[in-house]
Description:
Strand content: 15-25%
Bound molecules: adenosine-5'-triphosphate, magnesium ion
Distance between the termini: 31 Å
Number of helices: 13
Helix content: 40-55%
Structural class: alpha/beta
Radius of gyration: 27 Å
Number of strands: 15
Shape: elongated
Order of helices and strands: EHEEHEHEHEEEEEHEHEHHEHEHHHHE
Amino acid sequence: MFKAFLIKYAEIGVKGKNRYLFENALVDNAKRALDKIDGEFQVTKENGRVYATALSEYDYDEAVDALQHVFGIVGICPMVQIDDNGFDDLAENVVKYIEENYEEKNFTFKVMARRARKNYPMNSMEINAELGGRILDAFPQLRVDVHHPDVIINVEIRNHINIYSKILPGPGGMPVGTAGKAMLLLSGGIDSPVAGWMTAKRGVVVDAVYFHAPPYTSERAKQKVVDLAKIVSKYSGAMNLYVVNFTDIQMYIYDKCPHDELTIIMRRYMMKIAEHFAKQEGAHGLITGESIGQVASQTMQSLAATNEVCTMPVFRPVIAFDKQEIVDVSLKIGSYETSILPYEDCCTTFVAKHPVTKPNINVIKNSEKKLAEEIERMFDEAVNTAELIKIQ
Ligand code: ATP
Ligand code: MG
């Protein structure tokens, strides 16, 4: 029934001279999303509006789902498209549209016509009035309310005519690819996939790095992270996932440094390695799923100590979220079920019973001196042996 979708976007509209860059990215990303499903689509930009038009049979639910994963889209309007065979034919089609799309015919409505083709024999006001009358003739229980209608029947007169009234929600945000790139530290938990998703939502391309510690962490734990990367990439697009073997570094720190500082020192090395891959990928920052006070390594002092090794900005989108708020997002984006699978994470084997909660940078740096040159060699080895998994 619906041959096309009108794609609504919001924030892009205020981007001034660069607006076309955002619109083009939106068009490309929508096209790419629709390419993945059965059926052929054309995505076009006309007079500040973006349309996705089906050129073949397609599955409606699949198409809506694909568009609901494209950042930048705030609304998706399924449209009936008809040829212009005169006003009577248009009126019949509008009545049929209401018949088929609204079970309960007891709402208020108004007609909103737009005449993109000015040689149509009636103007918008005349179309509104005349169509309103025909609708009331067909469904006497309906009422017109021009100020607060329950339903707005949109009629766009172009070379063909579009009829639509429903807006399905899009994911919002900005088109991915319009705001540079960042490197996500992706673990198997709940928080980091949400942090990656939130950053991608602002138009950022996301690559990721995962630290595993075989044999202390299993192949299944790694697979879980790959699965999480796929869930995020359904929104953020193709992703390079670096899997770094962190075992030697972890063991070595465990051997040489005070155990209550272990997590902080380990996390400093994670950041350094992540930054290495970020530079290699041309990324502009790092992303973590840290949230103030969630665990000992996420107190203000711990965050400062971890941050101290970074030369790039570190983005922490969930920094001020409560756990439940993060869970709510993960449920919405579909990562929660995977995140709660019980496979052990990188650090559990080595975690101290009483980690420092207020690390002192100088004390930490002093402990790190004991790692000497050996840690440099291990750093290089971890970086050089990392596995690159191309997601999508
Ligand atoms: P999450 O729920 O996001 O997995 P967490 O609750 O396990 O985090 P921490 O272990 O303190 O909390 O990790 C904080 C952040 O550090 C994570 O959100 C993630 O960005 C990064 N991180 C932790 N462990 C790893 C890992 N093994 N690989 C990659 N990044 C990690
Ligand atoms: Mg966490």
